[in-house]
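Hey L., structure's done. Input below.
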Amino acid sequence: MLSSALKNLSKHSIIYISAIAFNRGASFLIIPLVTAYIGSVENYGVKEIAEVAIALMVQLLGFTVFQAMVRYLADADTDLARGQILNTSLYLVAGGAGALLLLCLIFADSGAVALFGSEEYAPALRVTAAILFFSVFTRWGLAYFGAQEQSVLYSAIITSKLVLEILLKVVFLVYMNLTYMGVLYSVLWSEIIFGVGIFCVLQYRHRIGFSPEIARRLLSYVFPLILSGLFMFVVHQGDRFFIRIFDGLDSTGIYGLGYKFGSIVNALIYTGFATIWFPFIFKVKEDGQLRELCRTVLIGFGAVTCFATLVLCVFGAELVSLMVPREFQEAARVLPLIAISYIFWIIFQLFHTIFFIRERTKLVLVISLSAAIINTLLNVVLVPEYGYIGAAWSTLGAYFSAAAIAYILAQRVFYIPYDLGRLSLAVGLAALFWILSSAIEVENTMMLIALKILLCLAYPLVLLTVGYLTPEAKSGLYQLLRNIGK
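Output:
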């Protein structure tokens, strides 16, 4: 039974991970284009604040309704029930996003002062609100396709959307020289085209209206998640506002770019896995299988995450130097701290899966509130004194705290015999190897790169040598690889 479940999970995961890795990778590869033509570090800071504003509104407007939609679609056994869940979810979120767009169009000047610090950015505020509105339809459709395990269609949509967005960036940035507005316009038009297209297709398939009863169930499920999402926004992106206030848009741009590089592992590896992990795990009903899956995934995926993070930290400075102009290269200082932070963020995500399975989402609120308080206090103390480096340390402290609290509470809800000793070995060994790489001093560049490569390759070999994988885990891993190969 476990083997069959792993086979199904691996089959869809490899498609999602490949597509999302390609898309995220392509997004990182266009960083040189954006930084070369956006005009200045300050303009990049405007783009960063716009993205942060969208993230905030995603939480305030309850985009987490789509998580509840996925949860209840797993139990829906008729086309009528699926249609009601699907459409009610859309109407709830689109209504709030439409109202916000109208407010931003009317009060753009005052809104720009509050968000960016100047009325001159009012056009950016209007476009940002429009992006948010049309993204409702895209996110809604992708959540549905993920829930239906339509991995090929999901992958085709996100890839095509990215290609269009890149082409539009070339037009708006290179040929029209629209700087940060060019970046925003490229996102807006891609959201319009795909959002409207997805809406038309799904409305044709599921012509079912709004259901007050389903709306009540959805809101009851996600209300704690909306609050926890707001608190997690503070953890993830609230530091940008501290940096803008105490250090200006320039530093906000540097930190935002460094954060983007530091989150590569999360973006390329975990995001694809999570797309299928949550819909898949909701369908596992047997407690013994659930425990074994969660335990196996934490150990295996934890090691993969640590190895990928080690590679990123070891070659982070070279990566930033290669990809961005000189005035942006200070972002390399932020990268290692953010990358390490995301190890604990991914561990937190795996621990807190059980809250969704057992419908104990109020505990997610407790964790996110705790992490937000810790992050805010650290930012208040560290950002005025140390600038964006202080914000990076605050992120590390908050993510570690979230993982620790999630583990304690999750074990009380549903005990899983996690092997924290092995997980700690993977994390500690990765940290040690990164410190060793920082101590290497070789003038010959090629020799330096060769030594760093050897150090990274030694990491998995050492893990295997010290017995990180038990015989049972090795057998499960072998079976999983065979399933992927099929």
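The chain has two domains: 38-236, 238-486. The mean pLDDT is 86.

-- N.
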